[in-house]
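Here is the promised in-class demo. Please do not try to memorize the tokens; focus on the logic of going from shape to residues.
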């Protein structure tokens, strides 16, 4: 039954993202052109992330910030680098759209724990590392339950809960909650690498949910 679920989920991911890319292509191309102009020819943000079983892959997002630096060559604060169009993209999660390509390639799924920095792999406890047992997702159980309004430990608890309770019903619930939050521009638009302090390890006992 689990194998059937995985096969159907992969098929649904591929078809949904392929059709989705075709439908949103006018919007995506418009955003890319605008960002090419505003970001000196760099419309995309690329970063290595930890995928299934910790295998590295390169995530693709729309670039919402410039690379402006101070006199010492250090990047300016986030608030000074986010462009107006970048802020708009993040408000409605439009910067996540290129990740549909990651899903088509098989690096990600539509639904699963968010892919985080590779350096975090060595910081997870034995329960938290189970979040790597499934493909990372564009949205997930933690994203529809607070995202950056909750602690890293709470997010990982939600991620592991998803890994242990995967089902078509749970996936549909996450999907509908994601649409609701995107339309309301709540929680879902925040960025782990910008809006949260870096994860430095967990001090509490792992959850056994």
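The designed amino acids, position by position:
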């Amino acid at each position: 039954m689990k194998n059937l679920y995985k096969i159907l989920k992969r098929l649904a991911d591929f078809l949904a993202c392929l059709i989705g890319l075709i439908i949103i292509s006018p919007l995506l191309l418009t955003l890319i052109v605008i960002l090419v102009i505003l970001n000196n020819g760099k419309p995309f943000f690329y970063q290595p992330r930890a995928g299934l079983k910790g295998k590295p892959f390169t995530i693709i997002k729309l670039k919402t910030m410039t690379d402006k630096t101070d006199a010492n060559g250090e990047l300016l604060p986030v608030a000074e680098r986010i462009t107006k169009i970048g802020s708009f993209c993040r408000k409605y999660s439009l910067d996540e759209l290129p990740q549909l390509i990651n899903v088509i390639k098989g690096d990600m799924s539509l639904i699963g724990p968010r892919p985080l920095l590779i350096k975090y792999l060595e910081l997870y406890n034995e329960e938290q590392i189970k979040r790597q047992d499934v493909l990372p997702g564009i949205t997930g159980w933690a994203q529809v339950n607070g995202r950056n309004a909750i602690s890293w430990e709470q997010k990982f608890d939600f991620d592991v809960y998803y890994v242990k309770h995967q089902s078509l019903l749970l996936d549909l619930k996450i999907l509908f909650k994601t649409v609701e939050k995107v339309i309301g521009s709540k929680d879902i638009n925040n960025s782990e690498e910008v809006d949260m302090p870096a994860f430095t390890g967990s001090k509490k006992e792992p959850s056994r949910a």
